[in-house]
């Protein structure tokens, strides 16, 4: 367990007082986070076409299949020339005789015998008395032009055959894809991303306009897919259902809910409480699944649930309140997706708190915050059903059940949409906060330290 995580766990007696809906003690926040990571193993690598490989982690080195470029090529539009000016203008023969020149475009193959490239701006073609076309230097030509091998890109200039072009483990960007294409690849071996099905529940939801009293605007539909993508998942859905048990059972059961590849993870919204319309646990039980996390000693988001079905699929049950759901998602959803995607568990950082936070026995408090001058300031408007405070925040403070005093270090998590490598520089004389990820499954390393204050 990370040292920062241990500081937020609380005592056994405290945890017992924060009960699960089933009446059993909730897991401490750090334990729930680590369990969500440790319960899964990375998905198998897959070969994907180049256009689909962006954003995936490469699982095997990409090497040059031949020299790059694989032939001598021109770096300029102009003429390939052999010997000194003037030159007889020849056609596009594969071999160029002494005293001859041939037209060539940028990237064109340099004919055998060519000694250099004369750029288009430096030459002029004219017809001699015998009707032959000849190339000569014009007034724009520089002294000594063309020099030997000038403007010729030799074969292998960029890479030798067998040279490593992209290292395994690299998260591929569009430039990597272009390099792989130049090297002759059509697809690449990458770490598969987990497919995440979204199930949005609630008969009271409206998807547009201003809701009437008793109805609420759906906020999960517009945002949840984007957050899951930022967390490394591939989104399937969303599937919208009401509050009936048969609808829940059908949504979690299998292929009819999400045509195509079955989701590796299904994320539901609402239904994790104990009312007559909360069917998460009953549906999991009917499908033969087991609850891995049933309630977390955290506020907000304590009714969160994580389950595994007999076929190896995972189901994450988020509370119905929007801020509570987001806190639950970064607590158990994010670590689960990191594990399935073959990535390390995100480290917890440490920042100086700018405010006192009162004790909350039995629960870790997750409080959206702003980072200003190297300090963490709790945001306002952070009730379980509010999103205003989160929309203005840079991260989340994880305050232990004992609370915290201003000036003390507090564990922090980055939000999925904030830069994890962000560096916040303070004014002279204050601290600098550096955010990075842990370098291995659940640990930090010298190469990839946990977030620190220096």
Task: Give a brief rundown of this model.
The protein is of the alpha/beta class and 454 residues long. Helices cover 17% and strands 28% of the residues. The chain is elongated, with a radius of gyration of 31 Å.
Give the tags.
single chain, 454 residues, alpha/beta, Molybdenum Cofactor Biosythetic Enzyme, Chain A, Molybdopterin biosynthesis moea protein, domain 2, Molybdopterin biosynthesis moeA protein, domain 3, 4 domains, 6-stranded mixed β-sheet, 30 strands, 17% helix, 28% strand, disordered N terminus, disordered C terminus
Layout of helices and strands:
Blueprint: H1 3-6, H2 12-17, E1 27-28, H3 29-38, E2 45-49, E3 62-63, E4 73-74, E5 78-81, E6 87-89, E7 100-104, E8 116-119, E9 123-127, E10 133-137, E11 152-153, E12 164-166, H4 174-182, E13 187-191, E14 195-201, E15 205-206, E16 216-217, H5 220-230, E17 234-241, H6 245-253, E18 265-269, H7 280-286, E19 290-294, E20 296-299, E21 305-308, E22 314-318, H8 322-340, E23 349-353, E24 364-372, E25 375-378, H9 388-391, E26 395-399, E27 409-414, E28 423-425, E29 432-434, E30 452-453
Parallel strand pairs: 1-20, 6-7, 14-17, 14-18, 15-16, 18-22, 20-24, 23-25
Antiparallel strand pairs: 2-13, 3-12, 4-11, 5-7, 5-8, 6-10, 9-10, 19-21, 21-22, 23-27, 24-25, 24-26, 26-27, 28-29, 29-30
């Amino acid at each position: 367990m990370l040292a920062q995580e241990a500081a937020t766990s609380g005592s056994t007696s405290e945890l017992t007082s924060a009960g699960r809906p089933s009446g059993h003690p909730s897991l401490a926040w750090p334990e729930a986070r680590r369990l969500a990571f440790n319960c899964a193993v990375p998905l198998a690598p897959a070969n994907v076409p180049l256009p689909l490989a962006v954003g995936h982690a490469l699982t095997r080195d990409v090497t040059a299949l031949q020299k790059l470029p694989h032939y001598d090529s021109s770096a300029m539009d102009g003429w390939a020339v052999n010997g000194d000016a003037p030159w007889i203008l020849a056609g596009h023969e594969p071999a160029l005789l002494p005293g001859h020149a041939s037209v060539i475009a940028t990237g064109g193959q340099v004919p055998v015998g060519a000694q250099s490239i004369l750029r288009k701006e430096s030459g002029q073609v004219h017809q001699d008395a015998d009707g032959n076309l000849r190339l000569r230097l014009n007034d724009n030509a520089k002294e000594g032009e063309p020099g030997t091998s000038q403007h010729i890109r030799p074969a292998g200039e960029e890479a030798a055959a067998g040279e490593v072009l992209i290292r395994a483990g690299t998260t591929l960007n569009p430039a990597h894809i272009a390099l792989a294409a130049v090297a002759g690849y059509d697809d690449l071996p990458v770490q598969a991303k987990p497919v995440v099905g979204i199930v949005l529940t609630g008969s009271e939801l409206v998807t547009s306009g201003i809701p009437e009293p008793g109805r609420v605007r759906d906020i999960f539909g517009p945002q949840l897919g984007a957050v899951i993508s930022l967390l490394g998942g591939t989104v399937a859905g969303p599937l919208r259902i009401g509050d009936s048990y048969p609808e829940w059972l059908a949504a979690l059961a299998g292929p009819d809910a999400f045509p195509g590849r079955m989701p590796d993870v299904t994320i539901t919204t609402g239904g994790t409480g104990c009312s007559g319309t909360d069917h998460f646990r009953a549906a999991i039980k009917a499908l033969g699944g087991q609850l891995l996390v049933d309630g977390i000693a955290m506020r907000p988001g304590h009714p969160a649930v994580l389950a595994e079905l007999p076929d190896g699929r995972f189901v994450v049950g988020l509370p119905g309140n929007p801020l509570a759901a987001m806190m639950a998602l970064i607590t158990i959803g994010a670590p689960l997706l990191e594990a399935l995607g073959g990535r390390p568990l995100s480290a917890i950082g440490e920042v100086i708190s700018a405010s006192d936070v009162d004790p909350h026995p039995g629960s870790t408090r997750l409080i959206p915050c702003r980072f200003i001058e190297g300090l963490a300031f709790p945001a306002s408007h952070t009730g379980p059903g509010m999103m205003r405070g989160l929309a203005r925040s840079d991260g989340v403070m994880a305050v232990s059940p004992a609370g915290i005093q201003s000036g003390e270090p507090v564990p922090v998590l980055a939000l999925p949409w904030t830069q994890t490598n962000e560096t916040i520089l303070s004014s002279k004389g204050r601290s600098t906060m550096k955010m990075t990820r842990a370098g291995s499954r659940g640990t930090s390393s010298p190469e990839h330290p946990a977030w620190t204050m220096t």
